[in-house]
Amino acid sequence: MAIATSYNVTSTQGSREDLSNQLKRVAPQETPLYATLPQSAAPKALLTEWLCDSLPNPVFGSPPRDGVDLAFDGGFTNEIADRVRLGNRVQVLSRSAAVAPVASMIDTAGPQTSLLAASKARTLITLKTDIESAIGSAQVQAADDTTNGDKMEGIFAFTNPNSTTGAFTAAATRAFRSIGGAGAQDGSVANSRFDATSNTLTEAHFRNLLQTVYEGGGKSGSYKLFAGPTLMNSLTDFSRATNAVGSTGVSFDAEVQGGTVRLSVVKLVTDFGEVDVIPSLFLNRTSGNALEAAGRNAGVLIPSDDSVSLKVMEPINVIDLPDVGGGGERFLSRTHLTLCVLNPRALGSIV
Question: pTM for the whole thing?
């Protein structure tokens, strides 16, 4: 007997498809650095600069005698002589899209009724991840080279204790680099950078990094550590029994409240201040590439003050462009900004 079933009643016979307006983006889009860093004064040129100064070592072993005049040549100092300029270049970050006239009239599924509106919303999200990746990168600043526009310097270039390019091209600026120089980055010596690609991060190594940052910046207070997922796991392991139990045996207590066992570290209270740990998926990336081992291992330690900020020349802006030639509606989402690091010596990094 012939019978209509769900298998033979197809779209040819009029079976409708059920496509809801739900849309879920599966790519990461949280931008903690961009959302957290404060903004400082807007730049007024493509190269924005600031002054850095240091202090001499304390002197107290040879006080002047009472009544003795200061020597005209040797009794006075130039207190401005140690100042240097650091700077960064303003970079434009943009995304553009277009929708053809007929495509804009087609009834499509999705949360927005307009393909143009959907395209604008998507480019704004993508542009934020571009900004996050740029400021969280190891990119070295560069001027326009007739092929590419100006490039900003990323946070991992500013925190490189061996840098001799970009912000530290001039020899005088290298005294203001992050602490460590050519020293080993394995936690065995004072260094504000730890190489987690070639070494396993331990609590002792992390405390060494914190101590180095404290000695370089002189601030004991509050820090933010933006950390990739592998680094997050390493920090959480600091509190686990595997690290708490030694050869002589040590008891380990797990705090359980309301049936919940906490296996995450979101704040570290250290000898040199409190460190808020913030996960990030856009650290130490290279342009156009997905998350790799370098980003998973990465971390940057920033004091909770004005040491690091964003300088925004043009806030994120959506610019509608004329439909020249009848090809369809077009637009450009754009911003001009750069990263300002007033004191690289107060920062630490894990790569």
Answer: 0.90
